[in-house]
Amino acid sequence: MKRLSEIGAGTVARILSFENNDLFLKLMEMGCVPGELVKVEQIAPLGDPISIIVAGYNLSLRLNEADNIFVEELGIA
After folding, report:
1. Which pTM value belongs to this model?
2. Where are the chain's structural domains?
3. 2-76: which CATH number, 2.60.120.10, 3.60.130.10, 3.20.20.210, 2.30.30.90?
C-alpha cells in the first residue's frame, strides 16, 4: 500500500482508503472513492500539484491532499 503522492506519472492505481477524515468528504465529492481507479497524468516540475484522471475527468491535487489517499499500485498504462 502506497500514498497517491508517492507514485509516478503514468501509473494506474486503485484507491483503498483515506488517512485524514477532514479531507474525506472533499475528496469523495471530487470522485476519489475507495475502489475507483486513478491514473497519475502529470507531476508539476517542482512536484506540486499533480494531475490525475479519476472517474473520467482530470483533477489537480496538492501533494498534501494526495498524501492522504492510500492506493494499490497496479502498473503503468
Report:
1. 0.88
2. 2-76
3. 2.30.30.90
The DSSP result for 21-47, as a single string, is: HHHHHHHHHTT--TT-EEEEEEE-TTS
Looking at the DSSP assignment, which residues form a beta bridge with residue 58?
A: 53
Q: In whole angstroms, what is the distance from residue 77 CA to residue 14 CA?
A: 13
Tens digit of pLDDT for each residue in 43-77? 999 889 999 999 888 999 999 899 999 999 998 87
Sheet harboring 37-43: ordered strands across?
2-3, 69-76, 11-18, 37-43, 50-54, 57-61
What does the pLDDT look like over 5-23, one tens digit per residue? 999 999 999 999 998 777 8
